[in-house]
Amino acid sequence: MNMRSNEKLAQHLHAGRVYRRETLQGFSKAIDRDLTTLARKRIVQKVASGIYYMPAVSRFGVLPPNDKDLVRCFLRDDVFLLFSWNQYNMLGLGLTQLYNRVVVYNHKRHGIFQLANKTFDFRRPARGFPDKVTPEFLLVDLVNNLDQLAEDKNLVKSQILTHLNKFSLAKVRQYVKEYGKVATKHFFEEI
Q: Number of structural domains, the chain?
């Protein structure tokens, strides 16, 4: 009977999908036991407390879960902005540092969490966040977080002054107004 229960649960799982324990309860009378057994058999992976991943496999091996799916399942919400501080390096300002975490702006969680062996930095910005990442938003966010970055602050500020014409100034002003910290607003007002 235990095998049938595990098999019944496994039939409802799809490769590459992330599941919350409670969404699977309708498929098993002993969900914890069945998930533990499936994890032991490597049919599913436990990626966080109450969150499981049915691995997808490519010719190179097991694929990790999609970050957006993982965060959506963790937050039980679709309202978040997912990006990496490494994207600051694409702004053309001469930045070179690499960061080993994914930043998640959201309205629910705050803190550093390990999900599927990856570090996620969940933040609840008081000023909110846009629907998508744009170069102008990244520029404003860079200045917002400049004190936390492993870059020379004065050099970064001078590079912003030199390269500001590469960005839509109207969008920069809008993002500064909507999402800029006080120091960020002062910096952009001065220039």
A: 2
